[in-house]
Amino acid sequence: MRQAVIGSQAMVVSPHHLASAAGARILERGGNAYDAAIAVSAALAVVYPHMTGLGGDSFWLGWHHLEGKVRGYNASGRAGSSCTIDAYEGMDAIPNRGVRSALTVPGMVDGWAAVHGEYGRLPWAEVLAPAIGYAEDGFPMSPDQAAHTMAHREMLAATEATAAVYLPGGVPAAAGERFRQPDLARTLRRIAEQGRDEFYKGETASEIAGYLAKHGGLLTAEDLAAHRGDWVMPVTGGYRGYELYQMPPNSQGFTGIMTLQMLEHFDLSTVPHGSHDYYQLCIEALKRSFRDRNRYLSDPAFTEVPLERLLSREYAATLASSIDLKQAADEEAVSLGSDTAYAAVVDEEGNAVSFIQSLYFEYGSGVVAGNTGVLLQNRGSFFSLDPEHVNVLQPGKRTFHTLMPAMALRGGKPAILYGTQGGEGQPQTQTAIFTRMVDYGMDPQQAINEPRWVWGRTWGEATRELKVESRVAPEVLASLAAAGHQVRAVGDYDGIMGHAHAIVRDEHGFLQGGSDPRSDGAAIGW
Questions:
Q1: Active site residues
Q2: pTM metric for this prediction
Q3: Strand, helix or coil at 522?
């Protein structure tokens, strides 16, 4: 069992130890938390390519010691100008894979540039150097990537350019083998030398747009060139003296605040951790936040999301009063993708960055764009083709997004940075680890180690199942089933629960880091 890592000056957590090491190297060279976070993000795009990459999106929350406030950057892409309902005529839904699923502009590189331009200390090329090295020289294939490559071998083989990268010689690389990505290394090097516009207006953009045009895709060079992310004000709430911060819509982050504000109406100090009542309270509160999320969440530039009401204390009290400790609410689940990578960095000045990135499904669209090495996301496949749906596909629109990095302040300074992989599971796991740390006094590693659950979505499947790790007591599983949950016990440390990570500043001023044993990650502190 992993133990919490404790540092006196800085901490890096991520789902791959090499990415954590990249961030630590940048801090040692004099970079700040923002530089290190970009280095971690870029490294993850190389060493965890089934979960994230340059062809995906990201969301960033940061606190700078000279500003004393939390700011967010929305680095998610919009649907292309040709991406209309009519473009999918005759289809019931947008395909989950293939070029027609790659209909939103990748926001990742723009996010790096925005964060670096605002707060970076080291040169841009130096921050990207670790990722370039991993791509050029190769790295040991992680067990997680090897398993996902084998599981999706048929899908990866369907696109020649994709197969050439991930199935060299037609065979997936085994865990521990050296895995190189020379095309991606060249793309990263061009970006390092020429800046973010190389990806959106330069050679890489031309290659991506040309490849998609040749193979029936919808994104164009003009769509790429027009892309810009946004600095945004986070949504806020409170829980037992902590100030909660999440990304605003199109992120589902507000569900994390809604859920905790419902739970604040219950005295968890009287509820044994791991008991029926603990799981029932968390699950039922989450179901109620999901109900409103599914009704309202989309791009706020296209539809109103009534955040003032949803995040009000009065509304939380109303929802909390409807929770029945003995009966499961009959709620509808939605199908959401799960491939994501969450990471966080705190430096010796106190700067803190909580960020998350994704391709949506594992290996995204399954399409590597020509000779760029860039695997394109399929995030836009979650758009609806129903004209009356709140998340209906429209050109220039951002889709409902699962990504939700979190940060909690106490006394005006970052106290807890936390997040996880896993679509529908993100607010569920956030709720679990946050309540365990705040209400039960667990350190971040213990909170992450403890058994988890996930209700609803799992790896793109729509279901109402309540999946619970089998380490939960049999009598608790039985009582949850008796309450009406469709309980299914899964593995002791099941990957379906996602990869959670957290950093906590404790009462002594030290930094405690936790990384998920279900991942290939590590916490590095000193």
A1: 340
A2: 0.96
A3: strand
